[in-house]
Structure formats: C-alpha cells, structure tokens
Design goal:
elongated, 8-stranded mixed beta barrel, 27 helices, 6-stranded antiparallel beta sheet, single chain, alpha+beta
Length: 736
C-alpha cells in the first residue's frame, strides 16, 4: 500500500513538474497577465481543484495582511469570485485562524472552512470553497501575493508533499515573472528601454590581433570613449571581463579558418565604473573573393536583464529532482540552441545517449531507495568525467544524455564514451551494498552539415544506443557504420603511432636546400616518414593531422628534434654537415612554449649543436594563432639563436607584419605559387615581388617544390641569392 501511494505521489509529482516546465515557458512571454492566466488554467486542470486564484497581498496601517484577487481559474460549474467585492479587500489577519496569517510570511498555509467563523465561514461555504492551500509569492525577498488552491469537496483535503513542493516552485517562477514585468513597465514608463539597451556597432581589421577600426558612439553609455578604443590592438583588455577573455579570444581565433561563418559569443562587458553588463556579440567575417579575411563586422547587444531572468527560471524549474542534473526538457532546449548556433557558425557538438546495463536488477533486489542513491552516484561520476561546458541530463529512469560541445572531431566523442564506460563500470558502495554489475551502453550522434535537426539527432543517438544494447551491451556505437569505421581508423592510427615511437618505426629524410646560382647545398629540411608494418611507408600528411588531434604532436615533435640534432652531430663529426637543418614546428608545440624552449636548450646541448644551426619552419596559420594568444615561444627561441622561417608563404594571410614581429630569417614560398609559373605570368610576377621585398628586408627566400628547370630558371632570373628545395634538388635519405 505504501509503495502504491509512493508511486501515485511520484506520478503526481511528475505531472506537476511538467506543468511547471510549461509554465516557465509561458512566463517568459512579454504579455505578463495573459501568461499568468494560462498558468492558472494549466495548474488548475492538473490538480483537479475547483478554483485557483492569484492574489495580491498588501499590509495596511494596522499591520494586517489584506488580499485582493487579481486573476482566477474556475472548474466548470463553479461560480467566479473575482468580482465579489468582499474578496477584493479581504482582511486575512482577521479572516484566517491566528496561526495561519503569520505562516504566509515564511511558507505555506492550509486550512478547512470549518476553521473559520462568522461571516467568513458563511461567505466561503456558500461558494463551496472548503479546503484551502495558500502558497506565498515572493518578489525580491518580500511577500507580494499568494497562489490559492481551493477544493470544493465536503471532506477536508490533505495536500501532498508533491503538491506543496512543486507549487512552491511555481510560485517562485511567478515571483520572478512579476519582478520582470515590473522592471519592463518601469522602463517603458520612463522611456528608457532604448537608452539603457543600446546596440553597439563595430568593425575589426581582419588579421591578428584584430585592431578596432570603428565602434559606434553609443559605447559611451557603457562609460567608454570611442576615440580611445579605435585603433587600439588591446581593445579586448578594456572591454572584456577577465573571466571571459579566453572565450572571446578563442571565438575570434576561429574566424581565421577559411570556412568560418557568422557566430555569436556572450560575455561580460566591462563598464567605465568597473562593473560589468552581459552582452551578446554577433560577428561576421568579411572575406575577399579568394577567401582571405579582410574585416570582422559585428554588433553588441545588452542582455543583462534577460540573462538574470533566464538564470532564475532555469534554477527553479529546469533540473531533475533526484540527481540535480538537467532534465529532459532542458536538454532538448540546449540541444536545439546548440544546433542553431552551429548552423550559424559555432563549434560542432555530439550527443551521447547513455543507458545503464542491469539497473533493473538493482531495483528488484535492493529496492528503489538504493536504486535512487545509485543514480545519484552515477550522476556524480558523469560530472567528474565531463567538462563544465558540456550539458549532462537525466532523461528518465536510468537513461542519461550528454551534449558534448566544442567537439571538432568524431573521435573526441568516442574518447569521452570510453572514459564514461570505464568510470561507470567501477564498483559502487551504496549503504553497505557492493554493486559490481553496472555498466553502460552508449549511442553517439555527431553534428554534420547534413544533420536534419536536433530532434532527429537525438533519435539517431537513441538508435545507436539500441545497437549497442543489441550487440552485447557495455559498448558504444555511432549512428553511422561508416563513421564508426572512420573514428576507429583514426583511433587505431593514433594508437599505432604511439607504438611506432616506442619501436623505431619512424625515420627522418633530409631534403637539400640548394642555392639557385651556385648549386651548393646550404641547408636541409628534416621530413618524417613512418615505416608502417602493414601499410608500408607513410608520408607526413598521412598521419601528422591525426597526431595533432590525438594530442601526441608534442611528443612526436620532440622525437624529430632529437633525431635531427643527432644526425647533425654525425655530419659535423664527418665534416659533411650543411650549415643549417630545418625542422617543422606544430601549433601544439607552440602552445607548450615552456616545454618547447626547454627541449631545444637541452637537445642542442646534448649533441653539441649551436642553436644557430637550427631553423624552425612555422606556417602563417600557426603564427596567426600564436599572435592572437600572445604566445612568445618564437621570441624566446630567437633569443637562443634559433632561426625562424615562414613556411607556405602566400597561402594564408601573407602578412609582412610577421616578418618584423618574429625576426624571420627565411620566407619559404609555397609550392602552389611555384607550380605553373611558366603558364601564369601573374604568379611569376608575384614570386618576383616577394623576392624583391624579402631582399629589401634582408630576409632569405627558399622556394618549395621546385620540380623543373623552368622553375629554377625563373628564380635565377630574379638576380637574388634564392634557394630551392624539391625533387629537382633530389631527396637525400638519412645516413645510417
């Protein structure tokens, strides 16, 4: 009997929570009064009462609480009381039993019509208003009014804990809505909406560090002088709160990608008086016909009040009562927001749909209370394994879901799924009970340009989960078999690459850099190859991008540096060493600047190689990211004596500002510029222009991918001491 009663209470609780969730959406409506009326209709029909009243409560000069009905819902057949004069200024202190009126100030009040006397008994009895539950509505921590739930049954109604607790949440939501409506009305009455919610227009130059070239005058409303900001490269330090600087810089960094589209970032904007306002920054990259970034245009909208209202409502009504995680409706809402944002250019994401294996056995053998505690422990493990930016939800029963944001590669979702399975399979100790049988089946759906919509993606993740269950449980699958295989291949190559580092499967080849006029070798570039046991010899392009995504590029880069310096030592001992050895430098190595400088210092000392014999080749894209992140790794290397070359020059931003900022020794003209120079006079002219500018700046030039005598002749005709590397100069294998 107790179990049945508990199950009924839980079903009632779930129904009421569903109403509260719908009410939250209604209360965000601009039409405040209409929204509250719809909320009263929803809750009245769900609770099976005769009427629901929304009352305003004031305190008179004698300290009495006085109530007036503002809105009312009545069941069919019940007579409305909103127009009854006796209930428009009702003295609650005199009407209610002595202990009930003070209770309204701190919690709830419930009573039966028989608790009243005199005219109040007659008034309520004639209207068939018998059992009462009054929930206070607080606005800014002060009593503003009440929600009255009235039953007409002749016997006293006992209000359950589910009704009481959930209705308090509803009252809290209405209190937030009243405060929001009051604020909007005050702004409208004072004609201050436009003045206090300005839209700021701005424009940035399209290269790091994105200096501000225009900002509209109404930035003064935030206490800033536009003349001071325009032209400044440090505008972000002035306008962006320190807690959001990394997020804003990361967002701006993404516009450097050629396929980046319009995007939106919310951040806290610093005001002149040291406080902050929440703003929404909508920005769009502007490119020329070749795809080169020219400018970034955007608008900034003040969303402080919206953020405050959304956060309060979300806190009250959008979480799972058992685990504290987001509930299904919150997860679906965040999924739809993420889908829309990604359509506008934000980062892609993945859905992980999780079902606990053998959870029913725990409920059946140990009981539902133990099962509930187990679900709470599962939620804690999920939180400990994911990032703060990810969304974790309990969808119902033993089903959970994770919205993995900023998921750039499908294997990232696979790695997270493997971590989740590992931690969820560990034993649980719940109230003295050892539980070893729990594991997790996971279905994954990753965002793609062909994704139909958020609901379809959730359904695909569910299908992938079903597949994991069908194939034996305790495993994960993607919604696509092809994607399964792609992710598996990438993960396999990453694992094999770690094995290759340990088992001497990698080796370096050295491509000579030859002076065009004299033909003498003036340097070599180290190029990595992988002698794979089953795939044969693999070039760098086949595995370096995977190494970068797998997080092992720093280890691989250290190995290349060590082997190149070791070979240089052997050449020097045999008096056959070239003057210079070039090594490619990755973005991952740049990010770990301390480790990089330490490696260069220790490895060159280990082999007795002067740092001046070492040159790092860095792409323009890597330089752009380093500039935006204010990374000083190259400056530190330059102080050690290491030379810096810009590889693939001409394919990205071609910014000559980098030549000054990083004391560049060489420009390496990209092979795509060298190709077809005999058939394209403009391309040949561009090469001559680059060489001419480099000569004026006393910077060496190396042409990459020189394949023909015609290409060598073009470079020789410039009259400069240019260098070339490519198959025309012949590839030279590492000495044993």
């Amino acid at each position: 009997v107790e179990r049945k009663a508990a199950e009924n209470a839980l079903r009632e609780h779930d129904a009421l929570l569903n109403v509260v969730t719908k009410s939250a959406a209604e209360l965000l409506s601009v039409q405040h009064d209409d929204a509250i009326q719809r909320v009263l209709d929803l809750i009245g029909q769900t609770m099976a009462v005769s009427r629901v009243q929304f009352c305003e409560i004031t305190i008179d000069g004698a300290g009495h609480l006085r109530s007036a009905i503002r809105q009312e819902w009545c069941a069919p057949g019940a007579t409305p009381m909103i127009d009854n004069p006796a209930l428009q200024d009702l003295d609650l202190t005199a009407c209610l039993p002595r202990t009930l009126a003070p209770a309204m100030m701190v919690g709830e009040a419930s009573f039966f019509v028989n608790d009243l006397t005199g005219k109040f008994f007659t008034l309520f009895e004639q209207a068939k208003m018998r059992s009462f539950l009054q929930i206070p509505v607080m606005v800014e921590a002060k009593l503003w009014g009440s929600l009255n739930f009235i039953d007409s049954a002749s016997t006293k109604r006992e209000w359950s804990w589910a009704e009481s607790d959930t209705l308090k949440t509803l009252a809290g939501l209405i209190g937030v809505a009243v405060a929001r409506a009051r604020y909007v009305k005050e702004l409208a009455d004072a004609n201050m909406i436009v003045q206090n919610s300005p839209t700021i227009l701005y424009r940035l130059r399209g290269e790091p560090p994105f200096p501000l070239i225009y900002i509209s005058h109404n930035i003064t409303k935030f206490g800033h002088d536009p003349k001071t900001l325009v032209g400044s490269a440090s505008w972000a330090d002035v306008l962006v709160d320190s807690a959001d600087e990394a997020k804003v810089r990361a967002g701006m960094s993404r516009v450097l990608d050629k396929d980046a589209q319009a995007a939106t970032i919310e951040f806290r904007l610093r005001t002149g008086d040291g406080s902050h306002r929440w703003v929404e920054n909508r920005y769009t990259p502007v490119r020329d016909k070749t795809g080169r970034l020219i400018e970034v245009e955007g608008i900034i909208i003040d969303i402080t009040e919206r953020k405050a209202a959304e956060e309060k409502i979300a806190l009250l009504a959008r979480t799972d009562g058992l685990t504290g995680l987001a509930n299904r409706s919150t997860f679906v809402e965040r999924l739809r927001q993420g889908f829309a944002a990604t359509r506008r250019g934000a980062s892609p994401f993945a859905i992980l749909y999780i079902d606990l294996d053998h959870f029913k056995d725990v409920n059946d053998t140990l009981g539902h209370p133990i099962g509930d505690l187990l679900l709470r422990e599962v939620s804690e493990r999920l939180k400990s394994t994911t990032r703060d930016s990810d969304v974790i939800a309990r969808l119902g029963g033993d089903e959970f879901a994770i919205l993995q944001l900023d998921m750039y590669e499908p294997e990232h979702a696979g790695v997270l799924a493997a971590k989740l399975q590992k931690i969820l399979a560990l034993p649980y100790l719940i109230k003295g009970n050892q539980i070893h049988s729990i594991s997790a089946s996971i279905g994954i759906c990753t965002y793609a340009a062909t994704s139909v919509g958020p609901d379809a993606m959730l359904a695909q993740a569910d299908l992938a989960l079903y597949r994991s269950k069908e194939e034996g449980r305790n495993q994960y699958h993607f919604h696509s078999v092809d994607l399964d295989q792609q992710v598996l291949d990438r993960v396999t190559i990453a694992d094999e690459l770690r094995h290759a580092l340990e088992h001497d499967e990698l080796e370096l080849f050295y491509q000579p850099q030859v002076e065009i006029v004299s033909g003498s070798t003036v340097g070599v570039e180290a190029q990595i190859r992988w002698n794979h046991p089953t795939r044969g010899q693999l070039s760098a392009t086949a595995f370096l991008p995977i190494a970068e995504r797998a997080g092992i590029m720093s280890i691989l880069g250290r190995w290349v540096l060590d082997q190149a310096c070791r070979q240089m030592q052997l050449w020097r001992e045999g008096n056959t060493a070239p003057p210079l050895i070039a090594v490619n430098l990755s973005l991952s190595q740049m990010k770990n600047s301390r480790e990089l400088v330490r490696d260069v210092t220790s490895i060159t000392a280990k082999y007795g190689i002067p740092p001046g014999c070492l040159e790092f080749d860095v792409t323009e894209a890597t330089l752009a990211h380093a500039t935006l992140a204010r990374n000083d790794a190259l400056s530190q290397l330059h102080r050690l004596g290491v030379q810096i070359a810009i590889a693939d020059f001409g394919t990205a931003y071609s910014s000559f500002e980098y030549l000054r900022a990083y004391d560049v020794s060489h420009l390496k003209i990209a092979q795509s510029f060298i190709d077809n120079t005999d058939a394209d006079p403009e391309r040949a002219a561009m090469i001559r222009a680059i060489i001419s500018i480099a000569r004026e700046l006393h910077i060496g030039v190396i042409a990459e991918g020189v394949e023909t005598e015609a290409q060598r002749g073009l470079l020789a005709a410039t009259g400069s001491i240019a260098r070339a590397q490519g198959h025309f100069t012949a590839e030279k294998k590492r000495a044993p």
